Amino acid sequence: MGGVPSIPTDPSREIQVISAGFSRTGTASMSLALAKLLNGPVCHGGTQLLGREDAYVRKWIKVYELRHDRPNLLKALREATRGFVAIADVPGNHFIEELQELYPEAKVVDVNRDPVKWWASLENVINKASPWWLHYFLLPMPGWRWFPRAIECMTQRSIEMIGIGMEGPGLLEHHHQWLREIVPENNLYVVELKDGWAPLCKMLDLPIPDSPFPRVNDTDAIEGLRIHIFLKTAVAWLMLCTAMVSSIRALL
Predict the structure, then answer these.
(1) Mind listing the pLDDT tens digit for each residue in 60-69?
(2) Where are the domains of the chain?
(3) Rounded to two decimals, what is the model's pTM?
(4) Integer Cα distance of 222 and 60 in angstroms
(5) Is 1's pLDDT higher than 50?
(6) Host H or E run for residue 74
(7) Distance, CA of 157 to CA of 188 (rounded, Å)
(8) Which of 8, 155, 172, 214 has the fewest CB atoms lying closer than 10 Å?
(9) SS3 letters across 131-198
(10) CA 126 to CA 26: how far, in whole Å?
């Protein structure tokens, strides 16, 4: 979902940009762009949850589990975001208000996209994200085995935030309106990724890079990742079953 997950090495660095665009509005492209502009690691939710170790994925699950306990939620959120210079995608955009409290100097960026095309893309991902058997299937895989639980947490949080039954292209405008309500007007920046580097560089008062603006995480990339996870996990199960059969035969 945008490459190798970023792992912070300097815990003193803090989030400078909260990329608050809804999932499937180019969050992975935005993450790579911010990583270049800010010269540091960016916490892109999908990449982190599907590319990091058990301990880190569980940090985000803890954030969700503490969502009704604000003091401890803020502590857990700080721990999950420590050392990153920016954040994008869920889980981050489920906690925009809390991130603003933790990082009051951070700029908040929303991303516009055609709502009909956006919903078609998001619906495709939702339908394939977590079939009922995925929790059992991913058990042998570090990091990945926590993904179904993370999806459950995201679903619960979404229901609390927007209610049951709200779906379709109108959900994107609902998200835009929510951001306008919770983010101070002078700190909310709205961009379109088709405009490339210019809006972000203007916001951050930085020169435009010579390299092309990153374009990643299209529908084909999502499908490729899904197949990769399935095949790698299937191989792990095959190896486990082979080892079990060998052990049983050795005992007979």
Answers:
(1) 999 999 999 9
(2) 17-251
(3) 0.91
(4) 21
(5) no
(6) helix 70-81
(7) 23
(8) 155
(9) CCCHHHHCCCCCCHHHHHHHHHHHHHHHHHHHCCCCCCCHHHHHHHHHHHHHCCHHHEEEECHHHCHH
(10) 16
